[in-house]
């Protein structure tokens, strides 16, 4: 079954966007405890800011005062993460309700400009709880993939309800990403998305009264989760100008609305750039984009076999190492920080329950963390990481590990994926020990 992180064919497409990298004077930032970029490093209050982070897309859902919310669990999960030394969370700040089969419901918005007040207040609650704990949030503003509605849903809003589902046998790979990428060239769809960007980035927290632009709990805004210009180079080539225009226009809009926080794309990296360094460099080279990102999915890309990790792990991790090295070189070339903001690995034997051991997963985490620590020690661009993802106290509701609408035991694995596939449970003691040891190294380095 094709997933949102499936490998795609290699190819190159000339990136015209590099020619457009003219400097834009940014609005003066308000003084405050905001994470800043200085060359290839992050700073906070004039000191280096490095972090061990996690993905917890469902923060706003837990924070909602609704039948699908659980504010007590939100606090427990944040406390559990903080106890490990995890201080940075990547959180979903958008979800578009529509016809797609595997999208989370409820969402933040539909086709009009009426937003879901429960989820908005849920995000306010999550940010307040993070601020109280000294944690930072990276908020992404839509999704290339179907699991939160995303760009395909925006297209359905303006195209008479037409859409295709990811994984539909009638539309095999790469039809879904090729169709979704048409979003960038659709002025109506982008206009609706920009309405959401203005509303979210310009929001004032309904509980604390703090404007989001002034909130030290926010580290950065991301244009989207894993935006890419298409599913294959041939189909993507004519859309590249629109893709670059969308990246820059959206980054400029965010900066205009909020000059205090960082901006980045949310890109997978080379996989999401159709294996083209030119595309990656162009999309991340705009002066309004503060830092680079990379996501690493060795199972989804066919580098390892979850049913035979013992035989495939070593070769797979060698490919992971090379992928990390490639992105460190790209970030160094751009002179910008780099975050490994998604990385996941199967449990031993390919199971989904916490009873499955994590020997190979733990080794994979150590490889990522070693790359972070080595780069930092050498003055390189890697400044942090966010593992995918935190399951915490949640457990699969159904024996088949499939998510069903109405389930509210949210896991780090989104609705379209097996529940427990990649997430870290609160009972995963060896994985938690690896995370905590890395966080301790980073904390000592900043003391």
Give me some keywords for this one:
single chain, 447 residues, 12 helices
Please outline the major beta sheet.
8 strands, parallel
Give the amount of beta strand, in percent.
5-15%
Distance between the termini: 46 Å
SSE run: EEEEHHEHEHHHEHHEHEHEHEEEH
- Order of strands, main sheet, comes to 8-7-6-5-4-11-10-9
- Find the count of extended strands (DSSP E, 2+ residues): 13
* Helix vs. strand class: alpha/beta
Summarize model confidence as the mean pLDDT: 93
Number of helical segments with 4 or more residues: 12
In short:
Helix content is 36%, strand content 12%. The strands form three sheets. It has an eight-stranded parallel sheet. The protein has a three-stranded antiparallel sheet with strand order 1-2-3, with no helix packed on it. With 447 residues, the chain is of the alpha/beta class.
Structural summary, described in words:
The protein is of the alpha/beta class and 447 residues long. Helix content is 36%, strand content 12%. It has helices at 59-63, 71-84, 117-132, 150-158, 175-180, 187-201, 233-236, 240-257, 277-285, 309-334, 359-377, 429-446, and strands spanning 35-38, 41-44, 47-48, 51-55, 88-92, 136-140, 218-222, 262-264, 292-296, 338-343, 382-387, 390-392, 424-425. It has an eight-stranded parallel beta sheet with strand order 8-7-6-5-4-11-10-9. Helix 11 links the parallel strand 10 (338-343) and strand 11 (382-387). The chain is globular and about 50 Å long.
